[in-house]
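Entry 14. Structure prediction run on the chain below.
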Amino acid sequence: MKKSIFILPLAFSAALSLTSCHDNIFEMISQEVPLETYQIDGNISAMTAGGDSSQEYLFVTNGKLYRRDITAASGSDITSTDNSSSWNKNWERIFDPSTDSLTDASGNSYQPDKVIYVAADTSYLYMMTTTWTPSLTSYNVEGDRRLWVSSDWGDSFQELDLSSMYNSAFAGLIDKYTSSYYNQKPSVLALDLIFANNTDHNNADQRRAYIRMNYHYDSNTKSDSNAGYYPGQVYRLNGTSTPSAVSTNGAVTSSNTYINSTAVSCCYYNGADYFSPYYAFTANDDYIYFSKNNKYIYYADGWDDTNKCFTNGGTEVTTSYCSSTPGISIIYALGVCNDYLIAGTVSGAFQVALSTASVPASSTTSSKVNLTSIFTSTFQVNPIFVYNSSLSIYNTDIWAAAKIRGSISSSTHGVFDEVGLYAYYPGRSTWNADGTADETSEGN
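Output returned:
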């Protein structure tokens, strides 16, 4: 059974040193909340919203795939579910690789080992799966990535056959990787990842999903360590149709690395999708907010393709918010509300106030709820999804995941029993565990 946590995080300790106010200590103690037992646990590798304004879902994967109906989840409206007394237990597990099989493009039964990515648009859900193959080394080798699409939000899947896209640049991939040592298919390494622009409720009708594919080449020798890949390309996913190549970053025609081999995230801003090599990447109506895999938060209102940079007022973004909290060296995720940014970092989570013009403050603001006592400095926090960015951070539904820092076997950070999915529901007014109603797995 999960335990109640109360650890005074470094982020809050820093705030105390600035305020010298003992009331804050008692405020944090009063925020201690017993953790609920039911939770989707483990490493949440991806989170995505799907559907349009008439019907919305949220999906997460920890190797398995889960779905939650978030239609009309503004404020306490989400409490209209069957489990409104707890707000928890409203997720459902829709695909489990240990028990569920798929039918591949050839009509054969197929059993993946893990769901590694999930993305969605207004009409379709996509998941990327993988298998693992024993190798001659001490580590297993990833053996077979495949892409699947669902038109009924995960009740059924069909394989998206991308063989028509394989051209001479990576047909056959690398001989080195198809040897008996690796036992991998030529098409496997071409599928890098899938992601979505993850719009909130206000822009639900603008949801789009993408796949990044890299073109590999053959060095003609199995032993050539220089065998590698050409810079790849991002494609927009179009349901069961062939994906289409992306050639713009925002409203600007672009051929830069933000939309080829390095793109890992996307956000919708000012009528267009912008791509980034940074995981901490989000937007509202006023700005794009991002972190360059460091402790800084930047805000921009455009993209300059000539100089390959995000801009503010036509000038490259150079000013930013900087976290001075000890231990926070990387910001991994950002969520935006109308009054605060919520940042998930390598060492917990914090919030930064936004001005009426949506400009980030120069320092953090203590949360009025149990944000920092749930996401302590012992946990890495990402991804984050904010349902309605036009509402206050205290009046919209928010989901976030806590992870072990580093490998599970060697990490001294965090408690594995507490790793998993958490949610803030305004009607409950606290952060707490979030999961399924499955009693046998305690919500997993």
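The mean pLDDT is 80.
Filed with the rest of this week's runs.
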